[in-house]
Amino acid sequence: MAPDRDDEPTVRGRPGFRLPVRRLSAKLRAHRPGLLSPGEDSRTGDRPTRCRLARPANPLPRNLWRLRHYLRPYRAQLVWLMLAAFAATGAGIAVPLVVQRAVDGPIAHRDSGGLLRLGGLALVLGLAEAGLIFIRRWAQSSSAVGMEATIRDDIYAHLQRLHIGFHDRWQSGQLLSRVTSDLSVIRRFLSFGLLFLVVNVTTYVAVVTLLITLHPGLGLLVAAGAVPLFLASRRFTRAYLLAARRLQDEQGDLATLIEESAQGIRTVKAFGRRPEMTSRFAAGSRTLHDTATGKGRLLARTSAQFDLIPNLTLAAVLVAGAVAVAHGSLTIGGLVAFVSLQLMLIWPIESLAWIIATAQEAMTAADRIYEVLDTRPTVVDRPGAVALPRVEGAGRGGELRFDGVWFGYPQGPPVLRGVDLTVQPGETLAVVGTTGCGKTTLLSLVPRLYDVTAGRITLDGQDIQDVRLDSLRSRVGVAFEEPTLFSMSVRENLTLGRADAGEEEVRAALAVAQADFVYDLPWGLDTRIGEQGLSLSGGQRQRLALARAILGRPGVLVLDDPLSALDVHTEALVERALARVLRDTTALVVVHRPSTVALADRVALLADGRIVAVGTHAELLREVPAYRSVLSAEDTDDLGLVRS
Ligand SMILES: Nc1ncnc2c1ncn2[C@@H]1O[C@H](COP(=O)(O)OP(=O)(O)OP(=O)(O)O)[C@@H](O)[C@H]1O
To answer: Residue 548: left if φ>0, alpha if ψ -120 to 50, beta else—which one?
Structure first.
């Protein structure tokens, strides 16, 4: 390993940890090889799913600059803001010049009238500065908050548009931190950092120019202070950018940890894993603390340098200025004005470290936000996609056909390897297969949660990829094995896909799913169910999800083991009612238990990514050993042959 270069900027992490920037950027590259490295599995959690950028932190504010269009609606406000800021600075700069006049004029000549006039002018300038600062702050905060809200809405809408594959791979905490803390960082920069950057640089240039005009020698001495400032800010910028990125990523990791443990609190408690989870959290929190301290130290070091430079120049100016007054090349009033103006440079210089820090954080935040916004949804409407024709009454189901369908998850082997299957209009076809053979995957392709890798799926002869997504999804009712409910009212959960559903339709769907228990909840259908519906039992959640799927009698029903959490008695009741619904609906139902197979007209056996047998339950039981093995406890070998 190459020895550390002494002059290389470093990022300090935990105590005793000192990482040169060059090595840190290599580390970032190694640890963030893209969205998911080969072998990394977001489901198994073999390795943490860190959705990070594939390159070190972007040294250019390209992504920050791309956000400029969000400022467009606030153009007028921004113009007022800048005018107010410059006018306030101008008023501030004018005060020392008035003081110079007062010292060299009325004070030197004991002219009390003149002194009163100049004192009044200084007072007016002070009041004007205060009023202008108020206008600036008001315009500043309202535009930044409005812009933050618009970006947040856009990210949320984009997340909703993105395909499921994206959400499979991204940690929710990483998304959460981008929508919350990264946006706040950008707001802070736009409302303070950017403004102060423009105002302070302008103030610096204006004051130094004025100082050179007042006394060229002393003015150039002050201007020379910019050289060490420039060198220090360059070193700081490089190191701080990486530290900021690291901190923001770690915040996302911690948010994921909190979210996971909140969602899995029952499991954590039931398995007595509280101490382990607590120490896992403490470790993450410590890492975050160390990175934040390292970043804080960087800022403190640079701020101290930035503090020292103007004070050193001030001391030099006082000595050289006294000499100049003694030699008569500067009046006392001139020296007072010079020093007063020079004092006005202290804040712009001191705040430079903070401004650079805010800018770096905003650049990193913009990079992180565009990592999401730049991801294009892959499951989208094709150009010229059509709506499915509306079909009323019996036979609404339509024919559902899988034609040589292949599908594999990114970076994984193919799960489906040429599935050929036809579900006749109004038919209920059960899909049976061993755990993990791809049944849920097969079902997910129908509402296009994923698109097929090869082959095609047709609905009434129409390739579903040529159909508009909204039209397809309004035709297909879905209930997955893990019922997802939201922290909304029962009614809102039920009508998620059918906002226009009437009271009678809701009642009918609830009756089929044997979910009438909702009427006994404290506020009936208006009862808000807790996050993810955890205030309901598994069976209740499943029945609600089933009612949601069948609400409005969709033409095609896709049900993933919809009755798995029900007791035998309720299952029989649901089956009986569901059978009536399924009569004129085309349905594809994943089934694990022989009792649920009774719902189906035919059964298809999925094995090795293909449909290896199709027939009635009785036929398959009689003729296909592998089917017997899957649906009964009969022992077979891997090829599906019955062992005698
Ligand atoms: N989002 C995903 N990303 C990557 N791989 C996945 C994903 N979902 C499923 N898989 C993999 O695809 C294969 C099929 O999974 P699927 O959930 O379709 O099986 P299944 O037959 O429905 O299983 P089960 O009967 O247990 O519900 C499995 O090997 C699984 O690990």
So the answer is: alpha
The answer, yes or no, to whether any atom of ligand 1 lies below 6 A from the CB of 438, is yes
Domains in the chain, CATH or no CATH each = 72-373 (1.20.1560.10), 400-631 (3.40.50.300)
Cα of first residue to Cα of last residue in the chain, in angstroms, is 63
Determine the atom of ligand 1 nearest the C-alpha atom of 437: 21
Q: Which helix (H) or strand (E) holds 430?
A: strand 428-432
**Residue of the CA atom closest to atom 4 of ligand 1:** 409
Torsion over CA: 392, 397, 402, 406 (sign): positive
- Is residue 36 very low, low, confident or very high in pLDDT (cuts 50, 70, 90)? very low
How many residues belong to the chain?
644
Other CB atoms within 10 A of residue 262 CB: 10
Question: Which residue's CA lies nearest to atom 16 of ligand 1?
Answer: 438
What is the pLDDT confidence band of residue 458, given thresholds at 50, 70 and 90?
very high
Beta carbon of 441 within 6 Å of any ligand 1 atom: yes
For ligand 1, say whether the CB of 168 is within 6 Å of any of its atoms: yes
Determine the angle formed by the axes of helices 75-102 and 194-214, rounding to 10 degrees. Answer: 30
How far, in Å, from the CA of 438 to the mean position of ligand 1?
Answer: 5
pLDDT of 49 strictly over 50 = no
Closest CA to 487 of 520, 527, 533: 533
CB 412 less than 6 A from any atom of ligand 1: yes
Q: Coil, strand or helix: which one is 426? A: coil
Does 393 score more than 60 pLDDT?
no
ipTM at complex level: 0.97
Top pLDDT among 108 and 540 is at 540
Ligand 1 center to 436 CA (angstroms):
5
Whether 163 is in the pocket of ligand 1, judged by its Cβ within 6 Å, is: no
10 forms beta bridges with 20
